Structures are given as structure tokens and as C-alpha cells.
Amino acid sequence: MVNKFNNDSWSTAYITTDLLPSFTDFAEATAAAFGWKIAGIKPTEPRFNIFNGINYGGTNYIDLDALQ
User: Cα separation of 50 and 7, whole Å?
Assistant: First the structure.
């Protein structure tokens, strides 16, 4: 995102966090069936809360705030 927006503030825009218990089984099944990794993230500031998730480097990062 730093390169896309040409802004270094994006380097700390998100933190990784544990998946919700209700989502863990889905993530494990997806990894087993398709080899897709799923990780939870949360924006560090409201201005970074602009999408629900992104795929980067073979991992699907899901904004856990979007699931609630």
C-alpha cells in the first residue's frame, strides 16, 4: 500500500490479530482445500479503514471489524 498510495504512513496502517473463533474453522478449511492463508487485520487509524480485505503475497488479509 505504501507504493500504491506513495505514502509511508501505510507501512503501519494495519496490525495483525487473531481470527474470531467463529472464523477459524473456515480459515482452516480454506487453507486445506485451496492452500489459501487467511489472517486477521485491524486498521491502526480510522483513515485506513477503507476496505474489508486484501490479498497480498499469497495471504488473504481480512479486516475483522468488517465481520462484525
Answer: 15
Reading the block at residue 61, the C-alpha cell is: 488479509
Q: Tell me if residue 51 falls in helix, strand or coil.
A: coil
Alpha-carbon span 38 to 32, nearest angstrom: 11
Task: Give the pTM.
Answer: 0.75
Longest dimension (CA), the chain: 37
User: Residues 9-24: pLDDT tens digits?
Assistant: 888 899 999 988 888 8
> What's the DSSP call for residue 45?
S
pLDDT at 44 over 90: yes
Do residues 43 and 63 lie in contact, with contact meaning Cβ atoms separated by under 8 Å?
yes
